[in-house]
């Protein structure tokens, strides 16, 4: 709770966390658990309505927050309402920082970008959700966050529809992104790899590895070779529109203890 500097990100992340545990969980279920109407919560999560102190106390009780956590939540609410005379970071800057953390932390953000390179890709929330086996709400939140940091561009058509496209010239800097986010991402990907052992045929996957004795002084060069190998695969096999999204996850780690 204390790592959050904006209550919108806290509530959105709590909803996504619950959905990740229970795929049948919905915004309506979340609103009911917090003692709010689904319409009210929807507007709060989209930034269309400010969270009142009264509602914040209700949410705090529903989530079982401690007194310190409740005070922090109330301070976030007051900060969001723009207290006069207080020096604070612009909301957009805060939101970009949190969105970058979430994009790196959750595996399906980059999967959506990769999916956009497939021949039959559609900017449809339900289509993307079905392809990646995630909730429609997760897709919506993911796209909104990638738009906020510039990974995805959006514009309004003459008919009033939102048109999305992947940015070709945007590179997300890893500077300032906590290692926790990167660790979360790789943990999720490794769990997906474990699932593939059970649910994908050997024709669809390749999971192999080798054990070897090496010198610590050579690790820098091994990592460089791995990086060049990954770039070679992208250059050779991932140009143009393709059929399906795959993940190549390389794991290099020590099996034996270091000398003390």
Q: How would you characterize the overall build of this protein?
A:
- There is one protein chain.
- The chain has 260 residues and is mainly alpha-helical.
- It has two domains: 7-88, Orthogonal Bundle (434 Repressor (Amino-terminal Domain)), CATH 1.10.260; 89-260, Winged helix-like DNA-binding domain superfamily/Winged helix DNA-binding domain (Arc Repressor Mutant, subunit A).
- Helix content is 54%, strand content 4%.
- The protein has eleven helices and two strands; from the N terminus they run αααααααααββαα.
- The chain has a two-stranded antiparallel sheet.
Helix count equals 11
Q: Which CATH class of the largest domain applies here?
A: Mainly Alpha
CATH architecture of the largest domain: Orthogonal Bundle
What Rg, in angstroms, do the CA atoms define? Answer: 21 Å
Computed structural class: mainly alpha
Count of beta strands: 2
Task: Tell me the count of domains.
Answer: 2
Give the uncertain stretches in residue-range form. Answer: 81-96
Shape: globular
Helical coverage, percent range: 40-55%
CATH topology term of the largest domain: Arc Repressor Mutant, subunit A
The largest sheet has its strands arranged as 1-2
Concise overview:
This protein is mainly alpha-helical and 260 residues long. Helix content is 54%, strand content 4%.
């Amino acid at each position: 709770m204390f790592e959050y500097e904006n209550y919108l990100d806290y509530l959105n992340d709590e909803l996504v966390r619950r959905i990740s545990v229970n795929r049948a969980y919905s915004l309506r279920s979340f609103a009911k658990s917090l003692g709010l109407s689904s319409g009210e919560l929807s507007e709060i999560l989209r930034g269309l309505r400010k969270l009142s102190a009264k509602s914040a106390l209700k949410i705090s009780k529903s989530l079982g927050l401690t007194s310190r956590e409740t005070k922090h939540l109330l301070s976030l609410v007051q900060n969001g309402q723009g207290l006069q005379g207080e020096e604070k970071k612009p909301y957009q800057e805060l939101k970009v920082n949190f969105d970058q953390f979430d994009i790196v932390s959750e595996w399906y953000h980059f999967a959506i970008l990769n999916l956009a390179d497939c021949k039959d890709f559609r900017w449809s929330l339900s289509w993307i959700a079905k392809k990646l086996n995630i909730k429609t709400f997760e897709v919506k939140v993911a796209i909104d966050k990638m738009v906020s940091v510039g990974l995805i561009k959006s514009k309004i058509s003459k008919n009033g529809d939102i048109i999305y496209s992947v940015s070709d010239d945007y590179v997300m800097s890893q500077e300032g992104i906590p290692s926790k986010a990167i660790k979360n991402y790789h943990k999720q990907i490794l769990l997906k790899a474990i699932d593939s052992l059970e649910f994908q045929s050997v024709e669809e996957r390749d999971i192999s590895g080798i054990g070897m004795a090496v010198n610590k002084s050579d690790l820098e060069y091994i990592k460089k070779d791995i990086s060049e190998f990954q770039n070679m695969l992208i250059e050779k096999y991932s140009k143009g529109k393709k059929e399906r999204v795959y993940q190549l996850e390389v794991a290099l780690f020590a099996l034996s203890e270091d000398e003390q």
